[in-house]
Prior knowledge:
alpha/beta, Peroxisomal Thiolase, Chain A, domain 1, 2 domains, globular
Amino acid sequence: xxxxxxxxxxxGSEIPPNAVTNQMLARIMDxxxxxxxxxxxxxxxxxxxxxxxxxxxxxxxxRRALAEGATAPEDVDLVVFATMTPDYYFPGAGPxxxxxxxxxxxxxxxxxQQCVGFLYGLQLVDAHVRAGLARTVLxxxxxxxxxxxxxxxxxxxxxxxxSDVPPxxxxxAWNSRFRHLTVLFGDAGAxxxxxxxxxxxxxxxxxxxxxxxxxxxxxxxxxxxxxHRPYTDxxxxxxxDHIPVMDGRYVFKLAATRMVEVAQQVLARNGxxxxxxxxxxxxxxxxxxxxxxxxxxxxxxDKVVHNIHKYGNTTAATIPLLWDxxxxxxxxxxxxLVLLVAFGAGMSWGATLVRA
Length: 356
Ligand code: UT7
C-alpha cells in the first residue's frame, strides 16, 4: 500500500502596511513602551488599511506560497483557512480565497481554533493526505485583529499622527479599559502549500492536540453571538461585549504548562528527544511564556526563533509566519525536524512534528 505524507513545499506571508509602535499606542491609552515590552515582548505590530480584510491577507500570502512551491492554482484540491476574524459572519474566508485565487471548486474548510488554528489545520491536512482525499493543499492562517480595537475613527487618526485632536478623557478611559489585550495583537496572513509525497521521509510526522472547553470564558468574546437575540445590538456595544475578554494571568499559566506537556507528549509518542529537533517554533503570544517553555523543554537558544517583537500576536498566522521567515533565511533545511507548539482560546493546545 502506498504511504502518503503531506510535505510543506512552499510558504508565503503578508504583513500589512501600517506599523504601530508601543509609543504610538501610548498616545491614545494609559500604557507605556516599557510595560508592553517587559510584560509581553511586543515592540511593533502592523494593522491593515481600512477595507482590507482577512481573506485579502490570506490571498496575498497564498499567492507567494504557491509561487514558492512552484504550484499552479489549478492543482490545489483542498483549502483550509484558519481564522478567528473572518471578513463576514458567514460564509468563511475559505470560499472568498477560493474565488479570489481562481481555484477550482474544491472543498474549503474554515476552522476556528484561534491561536492553535494552524496546528489543527495541519492535522486536518495530514488526515486528508493520508486518506488519499487530497494531494495539493493550501493551508492559510490570517487575522485582522484591528477590527477588535475599540478606538473611535478620530482616535485612529490621532494614533497614526494624522490628526492633532487627542482622545477625550472618556475615550482615553475606554481605550485604557482594554489595554491588557489590545496592545498584544497585530494583523497578518501566512500560508503554506502542502503536497502529498510517497517517500515517507519528509512531511507531517505527528500531532497531539487537546481542548478543555471548561475554561472557555478565560478568553472569549462575550457578545455578538447567537446566545443573544438579536445576536448583536447597541447595548452589547455600549458594554464593550464585542471586545474579547481575557484573564491574562490565568491564560499565561495554563499556556506555560500545556505547551510544555503537549510538546513532551508528541516527542515521546514518536520515540524522539528534544535533541533530535532542529528548530522549535512556538505560538507568539508572550515572549515570557515561550522563554519558560524553552527552559522547561531544555531547548538551546539557537533552536528557538521569536518574532513577537515585530508583529505581536497574530493568532492563526504566528506559526506559518515564523515558518516562512525561517525558510527564507535558510533556517529550515530539507530533512530538519521542526517542532511546532501553540496554546489559545478554547482553551486549545497542540504540538506538531514536521520533517521539512
Ligand atoms: O494567544 C492567546 C493566548 N493569550 C495569551 O497567552 C496571553 C497570556 N497572558 C499574558 O500574556 C499576560 O498575562 C499579559 C501580557 C496579558 C499581562 O501581563 P501580566 O504580567 O499578567 O499583567 P497583569 O494582567 O497581571 O497586570 C499587571 C498590571 C495591572 O495593574 P495593577 O492591577 O497591578 O495596578 C494592569 O492593570 O499591569 C496593568 N496593565 C497595564 N499597564 C500598562 C495591564 N495592561 C497594561 C498595559 N499598559 N497595556
